[in-house]
Amino acid sequence: MRTEPAPPRIAVIGAGPGGLTCARVLRRHGVPATVYDLDASRAARGQGGTLDMHPGSGQYALAEAGLTEEFRALARPEGQRMRLVGRDGRILLDAVPPEADTAEGNPEIDRGQLRDLLLDSLGPDTVRWGHRLTRVEPLGDGSHRLHFAGGATTEADLVIGADGAWSTVRAALSDAVPVHTGVTFVETGLDDADARHPRLAGLTGDGTLMALADRQGLIAQRNSGGHIRVYVALSADEDWHRRAGLDLTDSTAVRDALLARFAGWSPELLGFITDTDTGYVHRPLYALPVPHTWPTTPGLTLLGDAAHLMPPFSGVGANLAMLDATDLAHAVLTHPTLTQAVTAYEKTLFPRATEAAEGASEALTDAFGPDGAARVLAHMSGHD
Q: Which of 8, 160, 259, 376 has the smallest set of CB atoms within 10 Å of its CB?
């Protein structure tokens, strides 16, 4: 009597958009995959701001996951609006992409909504919460034993590192570590903005506002539910607050330090700093070296930020992670062995990630250089 071979044991580390997309595409085609995440539950923490989904990457991945209609029900095409202003508050550009109301546009969706959409598409047994990976142990035959905090272990034929900037899986493949980009964000936000902060809500508009000058900036991003997420961007190292003797838990001191850095800016723009409803969160920006590659290793690979962490200023990070995930899932589905699948996937991944990371680095340098507003204006106007 002929028996079917056992399906491969696939472990995805990290329940972000990339890891969940990979599991969804695999499971949609009958290949089981288990996702392990360090969070205690899906509601353990906030998921960040809004994402623009690109047709050839994020939207393509959602189509391959069978979730296009669900995505469109949540997406905000109006969120593509981009407004650029100077330090005096004067509007330099107010742009709505011509494809904003078509399938070719890049509609916005909150990161948390996207994650919930993907989680809800998976069976309740797919994600194992409360599993913080501490070590990946090779077993000599291409499989690996995963060690989690608390002593739990499991074995897998393929381990997919979708565990973000500080990936534990990456350490088994590469010596690369993220380095600070020279730019640090301080995140704050406005709740029920249209009612409580109508002036700032009007200035932000339906999408994203950027004010750039003096190698720094203010970025206000419309989210769903009336929330505006604000990033106060500084050309400063990750320890700028320590050198200034600043306690990041002292909201008043942080506000005053930021106002000092933005002295001379429009009082209207400074409202994005002073009128916070959420306090201030320190978010230094890191990136992996470019290019970042590793020797193809049976049973291990990476996707998303674990593979190609880059500055968030080009809008491709989540899109690229979801495209990685889809390409890897397709490779697993169409190649006779996992090693052949990983080899084919990484052959596509490496050049694509290098090009994207170089573009993201250039965009960050342009935005926070001495003529940041002019460089971004030229790019947004299509003249660079």
A: 259
